[in-house]
Structure formats: C-alpha cells, structure tokens
Amino acid sequence: MENKLRIALLGGGPSALFMLKRFVDAGNANLLIDIYEKKDQLGLGMPYSPEGARDEHVTNTSGNEIPELVTPVADWVKTAPESLEQHFNISPETYNDYKVLPRLFFGQYLKDQFKLLCDMANGMGIMGQIHFNCAVTDIIDHPEQKIVAIEINGDRHAEYDRVIICTGHTWPKKHEGKVRGYFDSPYPPAKLNIKSNEPIAIKGSSLTAVDAVRTLARANGEFWIDANGVRHFKVADDSAGFKLLMHSRDGLLPGIRFHLEDPHLSKDGTLTKAQLQQHRQANGGFISLDILFEENFKHIILKKHPEVYAKIKSMNLEAFVELMMGMREHTEPFRLFKAEYDEAERSIKKRESVFWKELLAILSFSMNYPAKYLAAEDYLRFEKTLMPLISVVIAFIPQSASEELMALHSAGVLDIIAVGHDSHADAGPEHGATYHYHGKAVHFNTFVDATGQPHLAFEDLPFKSLLKKQTVSPARLKFRIADAAKATDQTKIETDTQGNDCLRVPGIAINDDYQPVDENGTVNPRIYMMAVPYIGGFNPDYSGLDFCESASEVIIKSILK
C-alpha cells in the first residue's frame, strides 16, 4: 500500500464516476482510490437526485448520446428494478434509445454504473474506501512534502498524493431564507411546490428556468392530452390568479432538442491541439477567436453544406450572430418556439440534423481548451456576442418540456418578457423582489432566479487554505493591445505579477490538464479541478456528461504520465 499512488476523489457524482472509469480502464494496479461523498449515494450528483429533480424533470440527452460507461442504458433497462420502471412507466419494451429519460430514473442508472465500477476497481486492488456523509471542508497543499491534506467535516484530516475535485454544481444562497418568497435557484425543486394566486417572476429562460416552470405549474394546475395528442393546461380553481413571467435579456426561449448527426459531438474536423499550439506560436501566444470561428464552424459548414456556407462565407462572427439573433428577436417568442418545435420534430422523424445548430454546439464545446489562450479583447467579444446565441440555440430542451411551455402559454399563464441587458432585480426587503427594466419597477411576492449554474468567482472557492496559501490564483487574460484595458470596465481589470493589465474572468486559473496555476505561473502537480463552477473563465462551456468524459481523459493521462 505504501508504494501506491494515493488518490482522493472529492465528490461522488458523475464527474467522479467518469474519473473512476478512467482509472479502471487504465489497468494500473499502483493506485489506491478513496471517494468522499457528502450524501449517502454515489453517481447521482445534483441533477439526477432529489436535490435537482422531481418526477417531471427529464434529461436533455437520450440513451444513445450518453458517453460509454459499463452498461449501455438500453441493456440496463432490462435489469432495472420493476418498481422503478412501473413508477416512471418505462419498460424494456417501451424504452427508446433516442428519447430522453426522467432524471431521477437516469440517476439510478448512474448509481448502478458506479457500483459496477467500484466492484471492478475492488477486484483490481485499486479501490480504497468510500466515505459517505463526508463533506470535504478544506484542502491544504504541502508542496515540501509533496502531499495534499483534506479536512473532512471540519475536523479530521487525511493525506493524499493526488486530489481530484469533483464537487459538481454549487448554488450559492444570497437572499433565500432571509427574504420570504425569494429563491436564489430552483433547487432543490421540492421548495417550489407552492400554491400561488398571483404572478410569479422567473429570472432567465434557460433549462434551469424550464425546471422551475414545470414544478410551479404542477403545484397550481394540471396538464392533460387531448385525442389528437396535443398537450393542454388547466389552472386549479384556487390558483385563478396564477401566472408565470419569464424574464430574459433578449426575450428568447431556449432552443429545442433535434436529431444529432453526431450524438457525442466528437468535434471531428475542428482544429487539433497541435494546430492550435502552432497558431499560438505564430500569434504572440494567443489563439484568435476569429480563427476558431472560421475553422471550427464556417470551414466545417463549407465541407458538409456548401449551400449554407455560401450565405455566410463573407460574415465575421458579429455579423453571423447579428443575423441569427435578429431572425429570433423580430419574431414573437412563442411563435418562433412553435416553428422551431416543428423543425425539431421533422429533424427527429427524418433523423436529419439541423446542421448549423449542431455545429454551434460543437463550436461551444471546442472553446473549452482555447479559452485560456484568448486575448482579453476576444474573450469580451465571445462573452458579449457568441455566448448569448449559444445559450439560446443549444439548450436542447426536450419535446415534452417544449409542449408544456406551449400549453401554459396557450392557457394564458406563461409569458416571456425581454428586459434588456441593464435590468436587475432587488430582493425584498420583506418578501419577493422588484424587477427593474426599461424604466419600470415591478414587484413580485415570489421570485425565482433561474439563470442556471453561475460562473463563480475566485473568492467563492470553498477551500480557504488554497486561497490563503496562494496555491491557486484568479483566472486572468492578457490584452493583445495594452491600451484596450483602458476602454474596459475597470472593476474587471487587474495587474499581474509582471505588471500587465489583465481582464479578470470567473474562477481559478488552470492549465490544459485542469491543474491549478499560482500567481507565478507555477502548476500544482497534486491537485486537479473538475468542478466546473470554479473554472468558468478558462472552461466556459457547461456540457454535462460530455465534459466529464473529456476532462477525465485529460486528467488520467496527466496522472499516469
């Protein structure tokens, strides 16, 4: 045991699941892996447990899109507990590998996969201990001893050679619990099972907002399907004044799930890391956003759909986004939503992708590697121009959720309001929040912030010894042109140790292997960060299981090399 590399996985959700699979697949017996999970089950994480879902919440990926684990979902369904299948009305006969699943049902699949991997790891002699109900409250790096200590539940400590932070989603509370009727997030969703006889404000129109809508609707009425298969909603008699008002910057609803030509978004045809490194060397250490748009988007369209390329070949990033957003902003939101729903239905029926949307998803995911090498000017362009389009188009909201939104709107209980970029909501003081936009101030007794997982700041990292000992540093990007910093919001400008004005972006600085980098640019070889809320600046795309699969591959190679 003394000769084995001691590894701690902090968290037992999907990130740890894919990480453990990498260790099992590697077949290296010189490892000893301990897992620390703050709850009493492995595999579920937040999205697939009661912390993040109820029966009405579904995945936005189907079985055929799930990265490879031990057992394909289609095979697991044949052995799933009968009580589980009856509860969700799923059986081996009715299961469809191209349809989404209830999140709580899928969580049980992940839980079983984790158990299989633990059994396999135990058989290989690399499985250490699984510590349930253990919250890791601090991480203390000891470079002189080449070990990392973790603090568990605020008191006892354990030491490891490598620590992989897999803590998953984090939803900070600012006003919830202090201001009645104010919710900093819709999770856990059970708290939104509330009756209302008045309008409720929902901030955002993402998949997170859709989760909130589905729960609140069921608490105040019921859905039903007519003989033609059309979904409807009826408000409960004691919720006659119930109404949901979604607020988004551009007044746009999320994109709808369609057939993916490449269900795993494998990025075939995008620039390789070697090509990006060559580009950096010729570009002053930076990777150009324009090159990424040309090569990882337009060039692939040219090869596969030259007729589409002909329409956009002369457009730069801003022009393309303006065209796509303009088409949306000038159409009534629910009318556009219904048109995109019909387009998605045709795509699924014919098993033909809406290619430019799929490619936009690939472009978004492919940004995770080069984001840390963007010039600050390009990062600001990416954040202002491309991200709003990406967040709308590639939400991939499932069909059942889409039908419920349309039913709610038809029933007169759901609308969306474009509040612009300067809007804000003030909590309380005693209950709810007041929404400020376009010169208006509208108060709601119930307010739900449903903008999705926030990119958390460097200071939000919960492991305070990493901050105190300067093991980690804030994520910053240099400006290509020094004077450009003067024209940027000065609250976002910081000076690095070399005296350069830099743009402060969310989270901590990491290298290509997801290892923290300190103020002097020194990489920490003992710690890996897979918790996406804390690396949002250098890893801007939230891609769920796809991220777990790709990041775990990078980390295992780094550990074993």
Structural class: alpha/beta
Q: Could you estimate the helical fraction of the residues in percent?
A: 25-40%
Helix count, DSSP H or I runs of 4 or more residues = 15
Instruction: Give the amount of beta strand, in percent.
Output: 15-25%
Mean pLDDT, nearest integer? Answer: 94
Radius of gyration: 24 Å
CATH topology of the largest domain: FAD/NAD(P)-binding domain
Ranges where pLDDT stays below 50 over 5 or more residues in a row are: none
For the record, the CATH architecture of the largest domain stands as 3-Layer(bba) Sandwich
At the first level of CATH, the class of the largest domain is Alpha Beta
> CATH homologous superfamily of the largest domain, by name?
FAD/NAD(P)-binding domain
N-end to C-end Cα span:
20 Å
Strand order of the largest sheet: 5-2-1-9-23
How many distinct folded domains? Answer: 3
Main beta-sheet strand count, sense and barrel state: 5 strands, parallel
Shape verdict: globular
Q: Number of DSSP strands? A: 23
Written description of the protein model:
The protein has 561 residues and is α/β, with parallel strands linked by helices. The protein folds into 3 domains: 5-58 and 105-170 and 454-561, FAD/NAD(P)-binding domain, CATH 3.50.50; 182-254 and 397-449, FAD/NAD(P)-binding domain (3-Layer(bba) Sandwich), CATH 3.50.50; 273-393, no CATH class. Helix content is 33%, strand content 20%. The protein is built from 15 helices and 23 strands. It has helices at residues 14-26, 73-76, 82-88, 103-124, 207-219, 273-281, 289-304, 306-312, 317-329, 333-350, 355-366, 376-393, 399-410, 464-468, 545-560, and strands at 5-10, 31-36, 58-62, 100-102, 127-131, 136-142, 147-152, 156-160, 162-165, 182-183, 199-203, 221-225, 231-235, 243-248, 414-418, 424-427, 433-437, 440-444, 447-449, 474-478, 493-495, 501-508, 527-529. A 5-stranded parallel beta sheet has the order 5-2-1-9-23. The chain has a 5-stranded parallel beta sheet with strand order 10-19-11-14-15. The longest helix has 22 residues, at 103-124. The two termini are 20 Å apart.
